[in-house]
């Protein structure tokens, strides 16, 4: 897999390494140069495909998605919608969805989306403020969902978040018709309902139900406000009038602009009521009394150029320019007007503004760095190979340890599933500090050499190592380190401790050898003494079976009996004799107890110096 460098950029961790929650994967997102502060960034992400690209198996954690700014902090307003992908409703739990956030760093910046699998520990829900233009944040019946403020003049009016549903409605105070109405959102699982679907209209007048949201328009590249709505019911309204039932969608800033409504004056492309007109529908005119009759007469003929079928319940979309509000903080406002006959209601969904689309990059695993062996190093056959890696996040778990695979220069796998440890006993003396080690790897294995030089050759399970052929390896003289560089290079504590252990073992063996030699010398001295003193028997023969003097052969010199030991001579613990010099100066000389020195002592009575 591809791993992220430790400083490119530093891995985001909200509470410190190995503390609480740690994220293991991320993907960069590059925004276009036209993006500016307060834009809405949008990217559709298939996390299942990213995990496959990384070579990772495991269930995607839907709560793990986080958007991180180029400087390393979380984006203040962000969301991941699992039920929406590419602008359409998507099955929940299939590891893909829509990620949005409010841009805080303008221009061609790179943000990072962090994510994880459930096997690495379930993550808590995203604590950041959602955009919630699709009303997916909030439960059924909520009047003021996250980011929005809803009000109504009477509790009998609908002002609430609703799920996808089919509802049977009877127009008891108007046409008397009963219809099975379509409450499906534009995308996702929820939409916002305004008007009189659950009950007949309790009062007449403007602004019976109001829903608002405040946003800041980018100072540069302000883009558009996109609104989506669905009218349903039996009442009507007309261009330029303020009668009966209709919906107004407005941008309120330094000035107020009606995007959808009678003042906008274009019912054919932005219908603001279920029917067009101020009179009852007939064979000659459109109007109230039909269910979603649009611009049609009762016979089905269009009068304003619309093409939608009678009784259809489509979603409508309109893009309004925000250029006149660049740099301003404005209010997006939805409000309804009602008359207490012929019920009407409206659904709204997927409201967005100043959208810029990001481009996904290559996914990365959690920050890792191969510390040993050093890059471009070469090891002769049979050399023990130590692997050490550093990580920016919690690198291992009891059930899923970090492992390394080793490849030779031809790309052949020569060692696999080598577990790396962080317990302070496999090369690193301190446990749980994100330094993973495995010492003495590869004894007897040839061609285990330097790691990959390119990031894309590294692997998820540790480090991807490669070997150099024998004919490419440097000569022994070339392998010797430059003495002038030794002081500047960092010292590997693990190698230092290993050398010290070997030195102690070697010195211990030398001490044992000296003790053995001393014991042998004392044994030889006892033997010599027993042979030279006739009063002492042979130490290895029992009493009564002492060795008899050997018969002298013809021509052989008679052995001289041993002389009495000089009282001035004493034995050294190592078998050497120390004797005062005959010159009376108190100096000593040391000589080995050989046959020649015994003869000299016997003849002259003193030891000579050299």
Overview of the molecule:
- The chain has 610 residues and is mostly beta strands.
- It contains five helices and 34 strands.
- The strands form ten sheets. Strands 1, 3, 8, 24 and 25 form a five-stranded antiparallel beta sheet that branches.
- A hairpin with a 3-residue loop joins strand 17 (246-252) and strand 18.
- The longest helix has 40 residues, at 493-532.
- The radius of gyration is 46 Å and the shape is rod-shaped.
Overall pLDDT score: 80
Please tally the helical runs, counting DSSP H or I stretches of 4 or more residues. 5
Give a count of the beta strands, DSSP E runs of length 2 or more: 34
Q: Roughly how many Å is the radius of gyration?
A: 46 Å
* Poorly predicted segments: 440-479, 534-538, 567-610
Helix content: 10-25%
The N- to C-terminal Cα distance equals: 76 Å
Structural class: mainly beta
Multimerization state:
single chain
**Coarse shape:** rod-shaped
Largest sheet: 5 strands, antiparallel
Strand content: 25-35%
Quick gist of this model?
With about 600 residues, the chain is mainly β.
């Amino acid at each position: 897999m591809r791993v992220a460098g430790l400083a490119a950029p530093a891995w985001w961790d909200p509470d410190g390494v190995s503390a609480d929650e740690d994220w293991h994967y991320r993907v960069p997102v590059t925004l276009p140069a036209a993006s500016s502060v307060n834009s809405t960034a949008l990217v559709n992400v298939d996390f299942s495909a990213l995990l496959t690209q990384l070579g990772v198996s495991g269930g995607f954690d839907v709560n793990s998605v986080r958007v991180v700014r180029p400087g390393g902090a979380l984006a203040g307003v962000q969301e991941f919608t699992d039920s929406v992908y590419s602008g359409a409703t998507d099955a929940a739990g299939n590891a893909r969805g829509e990620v949005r956030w409010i841009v805080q760093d303008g221009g061609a910046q790179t943000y990072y989306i962090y994510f994880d699998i459930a096997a690495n520990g379930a993550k808590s829900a995203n604590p950041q403020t959602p955009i919630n233009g699709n009303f997916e944040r909030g439960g059924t019946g909520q009047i003021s969902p996250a980011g929005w403020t809803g009000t109504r003049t009477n509790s009998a009016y609908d002002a609430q978040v609703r799920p996808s549903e089919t509802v049977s409605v009877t127009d008891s105070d108007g046409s008397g018709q009963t219809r099975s109405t379509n409450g499906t959102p534009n995308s996702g699982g929820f939409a916002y309902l305004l008007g009189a679907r659950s009950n007949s209209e309790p009062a007449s007048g403007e602004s019976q139900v109001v829903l608002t949201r405040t946003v800041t328009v980018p100072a540069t590249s302000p883009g558009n406000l996109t609104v989506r709505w669905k009218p349903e019911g039996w009442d009507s309204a007309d261009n330029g009038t303020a009668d009966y039932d209709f919906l107004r969608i407005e941008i309120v800033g330094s000035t107020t602009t009606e995007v959808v409504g009678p003042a906008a004056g274009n019912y054919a492309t932005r219908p603001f009521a279920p029917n067009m007109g101020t009179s009852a529908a007939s064979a000659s005119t459109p109007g109230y009394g039909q269910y979603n009759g649009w611009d049609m007469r009762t016979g089905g003929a269009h009068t304003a150029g619309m093409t939608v079928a009678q009784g259809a319940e489509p979603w409508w979309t309109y893009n309004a320019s925000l250029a006149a509000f660049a740099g301003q903080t404005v209010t997006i406002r939805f409000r309804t007007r009602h008359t207490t006959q012929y019920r009407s209601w409206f659904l709204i969904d997927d409201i967005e503004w100043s959208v810029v689309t990001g481009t996904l990059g290559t996914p990365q695993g959690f920050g890792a760095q191969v510390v040993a062996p050093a890059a471009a190093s070469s090891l002769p056959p049979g050399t023990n190979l130590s692997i050490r890696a550093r990580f920016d996040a919690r690198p291992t778990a009891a059930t899923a340890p970090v492992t390394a695979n080793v490849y030779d220069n031809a790309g052949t796998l020569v060692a696999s599933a080598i577990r790396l440890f962080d317990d302070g006993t496999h090369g690193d003396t301190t446990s749980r500090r994100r330094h993973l080690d495995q010492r003495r790897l590869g004894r007897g294995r040839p061609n285990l050499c330097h790691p990959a030089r390119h990031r894309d050759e590294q692997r998820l399970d540790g480090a991807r190592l490669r070997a150099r052929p024998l004919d490419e390896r440097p000569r022994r003289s070339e392998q010797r380190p430059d003495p002038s560089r030794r002081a500047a290079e960092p010292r590997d504590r693990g190698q230092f401790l290993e050398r010290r252990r070997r030195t102690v073992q070697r010195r211990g063996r030398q001490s044992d050898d000296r003790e053995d030699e001393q014991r042998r010398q004392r044994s030889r001295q006892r033997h010599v003494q027993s042979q030279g003193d006739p009063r002492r028997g042979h130490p290895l023969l029992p009493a009564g079976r002492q060795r008899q003097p050997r018969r002298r052969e013809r021509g052989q010199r008679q052995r001289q009996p041993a002389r009495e030991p000089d009282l001035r001579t004493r034995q050294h613990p190592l078998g050497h004799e120390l004797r005062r010099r005959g010159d009376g100066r108190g100096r000593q000389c040391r000589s080995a107890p050989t046959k020649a020195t015994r003869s000299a002592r016997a003849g002259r009575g003193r030891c000579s110096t050299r």
